[in-house]
Amino acid sequence: MKQGLQYNLEDKVFVVTGGSRGIGFEIARNLKDQGAKVVICARKEAGIDAALKELGAGGNAMGIQAHVAKEEDVERLFDATIDRFGMLDGLVNNVGMNLLTPSTSETGPGQWNKIIETNLTGAFLCSRMAATIMKKQGHGRIVNISSIAGRKASPGMGIYGIAKAGIDMLTKVLASELAPFNIQVNAVAPGMVRTDFSKPFWSNEEILDQILKTIPMGRIAEPKDIVHPVLFLCSDGASYITGHVLVVDGGSTIV
Question: Fewest CB within 10 angstroms: 79, 147, 202, 244, which?
Answer without folding.
Answer: 79
